[in-house]
Amino acid sequence: MMEAIRKYKDKSHIFVKSKFEKEDGAGWLLLQQLIIAPMSLITTVLLAKVLSITDYGFYKYILSVYGIVAVTGLSGFYNIASLNMQRGEDEFFHLGFKYRRILRWIPVLVSIIISAYYFIMGNNFLGTLFLITIFSHLFVDLYDFYMVAVSGRGHYKLHSLLAVINYFVSFFPPILVAYLTQNLYFVFITLFFCQFLFRIFAFHYVKKKLNLQNKNILNELSKERENNYKKESLALSFNGALGNLSVNGSSAIVFNRLGAEANAIYSLAITFADFIYGIVSAPLAKATLIFSRMTRDKVSNTEKIKLANSLSRKYFWFALLAMLATMATLPFVYKFLFAKYLFSYKFAVVYSLSILSIAFYPAYQYLYEIRKIKLLNTIQISTLVLGLASLFFSAMYFGLWGAIIVAIILRFANNVISTILIRIKK
Prior knowledge:
By secondary structure, the chain is mainly α. It has one domain. It contains 17 helices and no strands. It has helices at 2-19, 26-50, 53-70, 76-86, 91-103, 105-120, 124-140, 146-152, 156-181, 184-209, 223-258, 260-281, 285-296, 301-337, 345-351, 361-369, 373-425. Helix 3 (53-70) runs antiparallel to helix 11 (223-258), helix 13 (285-296) packs parallel to helix 16 (361-369) and helix 14 crosses helix 16. The chain is globular and about 60 Å long. It is found in: Cell membrane.
């Protein structure tokens, strides 16, 4: 018996150790999420308690519109650079950053237009807030490019460490400012300034640590490869924009159809399921890297599909248990942490169904890595148009319940369709 226990402990030790090695990294990704996700929830708890329901609704609206505006900066140049680095092509780090510096001016101009619109309409409050976001589009998002290097090289430990530090530096000072001032202007100024200080430091630190300071390798890049990079990046930017609109567009519609208070309730309701979703799905972040390495090693797509299906079956049970636990816990969470929101806990319980969508995500990752961008765009356009149109009318006729049901459907749509497609192909 003791010998069996010893062998089991040895195997368990080897298994756990493997999850923290560079080639796997799932342990670091999970540890990162286990730290950040609770902190994110604490941030939500503190801001929701410190700010009034209406101010919290405005806060979430600004962040939603900020996310929508950010897509005009064409995030595909960021993502394709990371994917190419995963295949060992480091020159795309420098090429991607060059385009990032140019493209950041697009969201700046869009923010100026939005700000001007609110000033013209007499809403100086929102007009000023959107002026403040210009600083973030210019500098904060630019230096976030360090994540391309750490994810592209597969440095999970460094990735996790920087992500955790970034979270603490970025969000706790704004919470303190919110508590002391109750002023959203100061909250956003503090948020963006703290993010900028950390990211510019992290950018230069990562470049030096990973030896990415040699820009001359760009000279080795052929015109054809650069053109392919631009083509793939534009297609993926469109894909990212669709996904972004699906998330942030929902909140913007709820705000404009039902008001700031309803948006606060809606945002809080989806926070808890998204918190659990982030923890359970964190190790899946390695799947894209694994698919990329399989491509590099010329492994067949059939084997990749087998891996995607295996991950789906495995994560279905994790997601199911997480969903049931979340549903059982939420009434108590609202009672003890959000007394003023207690009347709305039912929305959060129902939205917890969305956690099950994790099980269908590996198929989407597979299609993403093999660059089926046009196919993914077609799927997302269809679900986005139908989803946001449904949200608009369901919010109008069924209020928050309509918005929650549509949000659940949108969470599942792309992943489920991707899973069906690869199963048919198989």
